[in-house]
Amino acid sequence: MKRLLGLTGLTLALACGSAHAQYSDGVIRIGVLNDMSSLYADITGPGSVVAAKMAVEDFGAEKKGMKVEIIGADHQNKPDIGANTARTWFDTGAVDAVFDVPNSAVALAVNQVAREKNKVFVSSGPGTADLTGPQCSPNHVHWTFDTWALAHGTGKAVVATGGNTWFFLTADYAFGHALERDTSAVVEASNGKVLGKVRHPINSSDFSSFLLQAQASKAKVIGLANAGGDTINSVKQAAEFGIVKGGQSLAGLLVFVTDIHSLGLETAQGLIFTEAFYWDRNEESRAFSKRFAPQYKNQMPSMVQAGVYAGVLHYLKAVEALKDDRDGKAVVAKMKEIPTDDPLFGKGMIRADGRKIHDMYLLEVKKPSESKGPWDYMKVRATIPAAEAFRPLAEGKCPLVGG
Q1: How many domains does the chain have?
Q2: Which domain holds residue 261?
Q3: What pLDDT score was predicted for residue 327?
Q4: pLDDT digits (tens, 9 = 90+) for 221-232
């Protein structure tokens, strides 16, 4: 796949007409930047472009006289490519806001570019909680999940049920490091112990040596601090090694519905993990997902794609309220001022540090006998209330937060 998907390929001129407002070049232009072709493509990729398009349509841009365009590009999981693409979009492509950006290393790079250019960055794909901590920006909103929320949701639940010794299998880049760090803190605060860790390159195909180290540690829990194709491959190979049958448990610290689909219930059954969205949770999530699936591989949306939808919807509300999209910092300030409300995440808010606040859910993969049909893969074990789901504002060390 080409690195940059040009305007003729993924540009969606979704509304037309003149608006009595100050929009740069008369168009509100949104760039969806993610992994279009590698290990995160199923959970983000072209599906995030579909989600963004749906948000613009549901917002009713055409009826409101607002012209919105969406473009997409592949950052190839490389920070330099991500940053350069964002910079080119801002400088010569008249892009006003960038969305998605899975891969925390890429997201941290794009975050700096958006701040430098005074544009909007709304991330639904990256995990590192540093985006609302030391690296927070007045131009950024972190929408869907982060490593603190995943660690506290899954880590606490697993330790509470007896999983008090851990060994981490960690993707060797910013996201994996942050997830390992945040989960280790939860385990140790709960009187558990971390017996060891091993780091693997991103997009690995062979986990045998790493799994043998985890097996030899005799830890009760092997924490998978990775995502997408890396999670799928490590779970499959753990099953081949008989690790679970040997008495150790796997804790998927970031798992998506598409991962379960790839693994199958026979392999994935019993996995416990934390998500911000599950397609089959209520009537609103089912209605959205049944509209999304025919537009993207007959696949149910991931929480990242749901986050793109909700984030674009709220961004457009803020731009509409301001009647101006030119000052990125002002748009993000308006996003924080307006309460969030959408059919996928419900009512919520965006804090001063840019953290979007909503409920999270502790999910468990069903046994094959419990599934009633295609994509019926999970059940909700617990709802983590919004007030408890994310790191307390005062603990994040975000320079934007006073006191």
Answers
A1: 2
A2: 148-280+360-386
A3: 97
A4: 999 999 999 999
Give the pLDDT of residue 21. 77
Strands (E), 226-294: 249-252, 272-275
Cα–Cα distance, 42 to 19 (Å, whole number): 36
Residue 337 domain flag: yes
Residues 285 and 274 occupy one common structural domain: no
Buried b (16+ CB within 10 A) or exposed e, 191-204: ebebeebbbbebbb
Tens digit of each residue's pLDDT (9 = 90 or more) over 17-31: 344 578 888 999 999
**Which DSSP helix (H) or strand (E) runs through 381?**
strand 378-384
What tens digit of pLDDT does each residue of 279-324 get?
Answer: 999 999 999 999 999 999 999 999 999 999 999 999 999 999 999 9
**Can you read off the two tokens belonging to residue 224?**
């998978």
Q: Are residues 85 and 185 in the same domain?
A: no
Instruction: Specify whether 371 is located in the same domain as 347.
Output: no
Residue 197, domain CATH? 3.40.50.2300
* R_g of the chain, CA atoms, integer Å: 20
Q: Round to whole Å and give the CA distance between 141 and 337.
A: 12
Task: Tell me what pLDDT residue 16 has.
Answer: 39
Contacts 24+ apart (CB under 8 A), 57-64: 57/14, 58/313, 59/312, 59/313, 59/316, 59/317, 61/14, 61/15, 61/28, 61/316, 62/14, 62/15, 62/16, 62/17, 64/15, 64/19, 64/320
pTM: 0.93
